[in-house]
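User: Second chain of the day. Same drill as before.
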Amino acid sequence: MRFLAVLVASLLPAVAAADPIEISATPISSFSPAGETSFGPFEWRGGLELSSTEEKFGGLSGLTLSADCTGLLAVSDAGRWFRGRLAYDGASLAGMSDAELAPMLDAKGRPPASKARADAEALADLGGGKYLVGFESRPRIGTYDIGGSGFEARFQLMRSPGEIRTGPGNQELEAVGRVGGGFIAISEFNADAQGNIRAWLWNAGRTAAFSVKRREDYKITDLAVLPDGGILTLERSFGSSLLPGMAIRRFAASTIADGGTVEPELLFAGRAPYYAIDNMEGIAVCTKDGETRVTIVSDNNFNPDLQRTLLLQFAYTP
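Assistant: Same format as last time:
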């Protein structure tokens, strides 16, 4: 009987229990050594450097915040959920509590079978507790019903344009979102014939394949949809011989046309060490104190000795 019980248990889907972890959230007092607070349309609202002795923490690549800017949910490129609650001191980001990690489950209720299948890079809040997730190394897009099933939610594959699954290895799907009644996805560096970055907008079987104009050596790592429907792109410049760079640009969904190229407006560009910038990979939009807040997170590549997990927040005024 005991053998039978063990056998049955081994065949049951894994339960994705969330593990509380200790997070050190060190405030970042300034985004500029000169103490500047305004950066074009962005006004500094504080930042945190996140660290933990838990070796599974890190690799944050997709980010969402609750409507009131307190609930944080992120995905890591090791196939894990990360959740925490943000605290504020007046208008400024000041701390984090209630941090926890949980494995992301596949359609059969099990953690991904390999690192390649665990490579979650993009996250978007669909409302009602449902989230859209994009995976890169084995490109696919699907939903998780976190509101209904918590971290036991299983991956539900979504139909998406086939071209999303093309492009150079590890430079494919990086950003997903919901625009109106449809969906948008942007690659990291699946380049068209002109060297611009391929992207897709689709709904009800209709797809517009377009490109986003590439500038300098920046590559797109995430997107966020603003309350007015505008689209922000987060872009990074990162490499062993480069100082880390970050750019934020904006374009309107109305400029998307099948076969066309959108040319986003530059809102901010900067490089370390003059700014608190690392390998920036996730961007989210929320509202606090009547302000549209833009929050950005970096991926430390599970290399805390050389890289940092930074959480930066700004008020955005178009």
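The CA atoms of residues 83 and 317 lie 28 Å apart.

User: Great, on to the next one.
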